[in-house]
Amino acid sequence: xxxxxxxxxxxxxxxxxxxxxxxxxxxxxxxxxxxxxxxxxxxxxxxxxxxxxxxxxxxxxxxxxxxxxxxxxxxxxxxxxxxxxxxxxxxxxxxxxxxxxxxxxxxxxxxxxxxxxxxxxxxxxxxxxxxxxxxxxxxxxxxxxxxxxxxxxxxxxxxxxxxxxxxxxxxxxxxxxxxxxxxxxxxxx
Length: 189
Hints:
alpha/beta, Rossmann fold, seven-stranded mixed β-sheet, 8 helices, 7 strands, 40% helix, 23% strand
């Protein structure tokens, strides 16, 4: 396990959401809904140590911009060094509209998200999800996940409901080859 991820988790467990980085199986499921052949801009929220970032950097075509917003400065610096093809911004996910405006990007093709929404208040969840929805072009994909054990939490149920209400359709796929097992949520704008 990457010591950076564990150190960040120990410093702020609610912000990190897990003591373990996402598995390759989860990363594959998270990135599958993206149309890499057509994507011009892909955003990752909460890359951590880069489990999803690696696949985004590998699969995006050369003309596609890949941006990642990471709140933890140490993790942001690590991902920026490890994946120079990705523009890493040390900022909160709620800053997505400002980050895109500063770069002259009106809409994005996909947003993948590693944030622990089950640990977020209703206001935090709404702030991020509304920012994502506003940033996506028609037909753009939003892909996130939640841990299976978190499904009993009211915050997790609220997040799932908000996705269904905002996007109309929510596809859910289990990933058991992850510690802990997860459910991948994918939506289309």
